[in-house]
Amino acid sequence: MFQKVLIARRGEAAARVARTCKRLGIDAVALFSEAAESVHVEACDVAKEVQAEDGRVATADVLAAAREAGVDAVYPGYASYTAHQELARLFEAEGLPFVGLDPDLLDLVRDRIRFREVCDAAGVQPVPGGPAESLSDAYDLAHQIGFPVLVKGPLASMGVGLHLARDEEELKPAWEAARAKVAEGPLVVERRIDRARDIEVLVAADSHGEESAFTECETSIVSEGRGLLRECPSPELVFRTDGEALREMMYDLAIRLTRQLAHIGVLGVRMLVDPDGRIYVRGARLGLPNLHGAPEMVTQLDLVELQLRLASGEPVPDEVRQLQPSGHAVTVQVLAEEDAQRRESVEVLRFPSLPQRTTRVEPSVAEGTNVPPDDWPRLAKITCFAPIRHQSILTLDRVLAATQAPPMKTNVPTLRRVLIHEGFRAGQYDCDLVDALMAEQEKPKPAPESKPKPRSRSRSRSKPKR
Q1: Using an 8 Å Cβ cutoff, are 242 and 277 in contact?
Q2: How many CB atoms lie within 10 A of CB 277?
Q3: Please, what sign has the CA dihedral across residues 434, 300, 298, 105?
Q4: What is the model's pLDDT at position 143?
Q5: CA 326, CA 402: separation in Å to the nearest integer?
Q6: Is the backbone of residue 152 left (phi > 0), alpha (psi -120 to 50) or beta?
Q7: Which of 66, 178, 273, 384 could be joined to 151 by an S-S link, Cβ 3.0–4.6 Å?
Q8: Residue 281 has what pLDDT?
Q9: What is the pLDDT of residue 34?
Q10: Could you give the CA distance from residue 259 to residue 212 in angstroms, rounded to a whole number?
Q11: pLDDT for residue 342
């Protein structure tokens, strides 16, 4: 096991990793660029000051801090494509383990075209589609796989976005919007799976050739490409009559893909499940999931410890291979909604006091400070656990109702609208739920019908006769 670990990310992720390091007797080294960054600095044993430009720390400065601290490994933080690419290469050349991330695999899983080839080699079904060099190719491919389609960039996280074309007329503007951001090379055209459920299977893989899929999470609640909520286990697999059979099939597909990638560490294999139960692999994420509180509370595993043990050469632990998950957990991100508040301090950050066995609150910021650049716009993550799903949802709604973070305008009202939605409560929802709720909210309310005023009856009093 490692003796001293540098945590390359600041904020809540670093504080989370530091807690596990302390429990394992590993010295945790933090990076900070401003005195206000106290959430993770206080959690670590050593803090190294670095220079940050526009909130970002140069990779050379991270390497210099690692050398100065004399660490024997680097923990990157949460799973990310672009933020860790250069760092992974740098530390590979330095000979320092970059826990859970291999730079070649990062390149591979980010490349949508090459990833499709890996899926084919592993015998798993990717989302129907492929590369298109021209608009004419895109038309041919769209007719082959069927509308609606999404036009994407060749690499994930390159800022191209997903451009929807419901029919032939919409394909040209969707193509042009993507091409405006990728001047050369192919684009990717994939069929949009309507009413899909987005489910991620977590796999642990060691350097001895063993892989074990140990749980799955529902990740269908998204807004503008950002995950807002994660459930474990997936209600789709809990409530379907064929849910257990689907789960076994998805776990098998995840293990086959992990084996093909030859990954060591924790891997999240992302899949789409359509209403008929067809499964499509849509991507893979290396490293610790951002919203990992729900799977940790259901499995009673420490995923940071698991990552560290696998990276140090230990085999997949028996408790992972023999795991029997129990209960239900839901995790949400409390986000600031206005970018103009990025430099503002959070005056108050309050949550109700509930037992730790049922509720886990992980703030990114302390009162009187601003959110670290690595965490913005996240203010906190909240996870609620209960023996049954309905109880965990009720507890989470209660926590959100009492959450305060002035002067920040947060997404708490949106999260609560999701939690009380009858489709969500029943487990019958898909990836479009948040967009549907937002569209419903933006609809102009009909003006109340004006009712005719009742005629006033004039009463005349007759004078009494004398």
Answers
A1: yes
A2: 13
A3: positive
A4: 95
A5: 27
A6: beta
A7: 178
A8: 97
A9: 67
A10: 10
A11: 80
- Nearest Cα residue to 358 out of 333, 323, 394: 394
152, 126 in Cβ contact below 8 A? no
Question: How many of the other CB atoms lie within 10 Å of CB of 450?
Answer: 6
Task: Specify the pLDDT at position 466.
Answer: 44
In this structure, are residues 283 and 249 in contact, taking their beta carbons and an 8 Å threshold? Answer: no
Of 12, 15, 9, nearest to 52 by C-alpha is 9
Contact, 335 vs 377, CB < 8 A? yes
Q: List domains and CATH numbers for the chain.
A: 4-99 (3.40.50.20), 100-125+194-326 (3.30.470.20), 128-191 (3.30.1490.20), 327-442 (3.30.470.20)
pLDDT averaged per 10 residues in sequence order, the chain, 466 residues: 89 88 92 69 82 77 89 82 77 87 90 96 96 96 96 86 94 95 93 96 96 96 90 96 96 97 95 96 91 95 96 94 94 91 85 88 86 86 96 96 93 95 95 88 64 54 47
Q: How many CB atoms sit inside 10 A of residue 322's CB?
A: 9
Running DSSP on this structure, what letter comes out for residue 341?
Answer: G
Residue recorded with tokens 């102009």: 444
Cβ atoms of residues 246 and 276 within 8 Å = no
Rg of the chain over Cα atoms, rounded to whole angstroms, equals 25
Question: Cβ contacts of residue 379 below 8 Å, gap of 6+?
Answer: 334, 335, 336, 346, 349, 363, 364, 365, 371, 405, 408, 410
* Residue 11 exposure: Cα atoms within 13 Å on the Cβ side: 23
- Report field, pTM of the whole predicted structure over 0.85: yes
Q: pLDDT at position 429, please?
A: 95
pLDDT at 282: 95
pLDDT of 248 reads 97
Distance from the Cα of residue 98 to its chain's centroid = 21
DSSP string, 414-436: HHHHHHH-HHHHTT---TTHHHH
* 3-class secondary structure, 142: helix
Burial (CB < 10 A; 0-12, 13-18, 19+), residue 158, is middle
